[in-house]
């Protein structure tokens, strides 16, 4: 099990967060536990998501071509930055 810190910007935090929350059950079904969702204090349109996951599963989710569509629909903005820690 590893922990990932994922960050990216959003157009509207409220819109993005509602969309993200609706996807949490699917993440949990895949074995991903959302630990925290945070906003940058200097830039409230910059979000950080902290998750626990098997790294192979997490990387497969992030490498899926569908992620770009999901990011766009949710109001997320590329690039996505990911840091894995143990």
Summarize this structure as a short list of keywords or feature phrases.
86 residues, alpha+beta, Alpha-Beta Plaits, 4 strands
Using the coordinates above, name the CATH class.
Alpha Beta
Average residue-wise pLDDT = 95
Distance between the termini: 8 Å
- What's the tally of helices? 3
Biggest sheet record: 4 strands, antiparallel
Number of domains: 1
Total strand count, please? 4
Rg, Cα atoms, Å: 12 Å
Q: Low-confidence parts lasting 5 or more residues at pLDDT below 50?
A: none
Strand content: 35-45%
| Helix/strand/pairing category | alpha+beta
Order of strands, widest sheet:
2-3-1-4
**Which shape, going by the Cα principal axes?**
globular
The CATH architecture category equals 2-Layer Sandwich
CATH fold-level name: Alpha-Beta Plaits
Task: Give the ordered list of helices and strands.
Answer: EHEEHHE
Roughly how much helix do the residues carry, as a percent range?
A: 40-55%
Short description:
The chain is an alpha+beta fold and 86 residues long. It has one domain: Alpha-Beta Plaits, CATH 3.30.70.
Characterization of this structure:
The chain has 86 residues and is of the alpha+beta class. The protein has a single domain, classed as Alpha-Beta Plaits (2-Layer Sandwich), CATH 3.30.70.100. It has 3 helices and 4 strands; from the N terminus they run E-H-E-E-H-H-E. It has a 4-stranded antiparallel beta sheet with strand order 2-3-1-4. The longest helix has 17 residues. The mean pLDDT is 95.
């Amino acid at each position: 099990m590893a922990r990932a810190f994922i960050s990216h910007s959003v157009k509207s935090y409220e819109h993005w967060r509602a969309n993200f929350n609706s996807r949490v059950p699917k993440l949990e079904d895949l074995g991903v536990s959302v630990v925290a969702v945070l906003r940058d204090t200097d830039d409230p349109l910059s979000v950080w998501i902290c998750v626990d996951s098997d790294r192979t599963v997490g990387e497969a989710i992030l490498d899926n071509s569908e992620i770009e569509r999901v990011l766009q629909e949710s109001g997320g903005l590329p690039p996505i930055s990911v840091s894995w820690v143990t």
